[in-house]
Amino acid sequence: MSRPRLRRALRGALAALVPVALLGALSGSAQAAPSGPLTDTAGTTGTTAATAWPEPLPVVSRVETTDPVFFLTIDDGWHHDPAAARLLIDRRVPASLFLLPGAYAYDSGYFHTLLDQGPSRVENHTVDHPDLTTLDAAGQKAQVCGAREAHLAEFGDGPRLLRPPYGAYDGATRTTARACGAKALVTWTYDLTTWGTDPVPMPRLKAGDIVLLHFNGTVEQDLRRVLDAAAAAGLKPAPLRDYVPE
User: Using CA atoms, how far apart are residues 134 and 102, in angstroms rounded to an integer?
Assistant: First the structure.
């Protein structure tokens, strides 16, 4: 074979091999990429060089701030006390309402009034108040996303904060909640709910404290106690959403 013909044959063979080599490289890359989050032994989601998985949500029990503010949160929503609603509206208290869909299903007007006439906001407390740590990731996501969808359908505003029932959470809670629109898990600094006959002793509130109350039979009295104690400490209630970073 002459040299020109040999060179043409070699060029043709190389041209045929290039697509095969490229296909093999692409296939190898696809196989190397993870198909899901990598989870360590603690149950938290990790990252790889190939894929950046969402970071776990921060957990907030108090806010680091020098502003003279505290944060009022009220859970559940079963007891619809008109005097408590009037107090929140008249004093323009920006309460974070961590509600259960079932608690407003029979009387959503109570909470529409709070939202329409005052600065309160509805946040996420799951569908029906389970201990989330007893559920797998899919079960937790159903609880958190289901409550978010119900709140959005009822009030036209999706919650941005999640309070896990009983304050119980794990690594799956912190990762799956982000998929449901949450930007933080919120617990509390003080639970000042009165459950029996005697109120909880009132601590001296400090800037950034998160106070937990419940929509129960003493919610109006509890609200007055907390607001009076905050005023004595030189604090005003502030919107919690505004102090939790994206």
Answer: 21
Cβ atoms < 10 Å from Cβ of 184? 22
Phi, psi of 69 (to 5 degrees): -135, 155
Contact 174, 43 (CB under 8 A): no
Q: Where on the phi/psi map is residue 127: left (φ > 0), alpha (ψ -120 to 50), or beta? A: alpha
Q: What is the pTM of this model?
A: 0.79
DSSP 8-state code for residue 107: -
What is d(CA 56, CA 175) in angstroms, rounded to the nearest whole number?
5
Token pair for residue 196? Answer: 């029996």
| Architecture in CATH of 59-243 | Alpha-Beta Barrel (3.20)
Environment class of residue 108 by beta-carbon count within 10 Å: exposed (0-12), middle (13-18) or buried (19+)?
middle
CA–CA separation, 145 vs 139, rounded Å? 10
Main-chain dihedrals φ then ψ at residue 210, nearest 5 degrees:
-110, 120
pLDDT in tens, 176-229: 999 999 999 999 999 999 998 899 999 999 999 999 999 999 999 999 999 999
What stretches of 51-194 show up as alpha helix (H) in DSSP? 82-90, 101-105, 108-117, 137-155, 171-179
What is the distance between the alpha carbons of residues 188 and 167, in angstroms, rounded to a whole number? 8
- Pairing verdict, β 190-191 and 210-214: parallel
Measure the CA–CA gap between 37 and 176, rounded to whole angstroms. 11
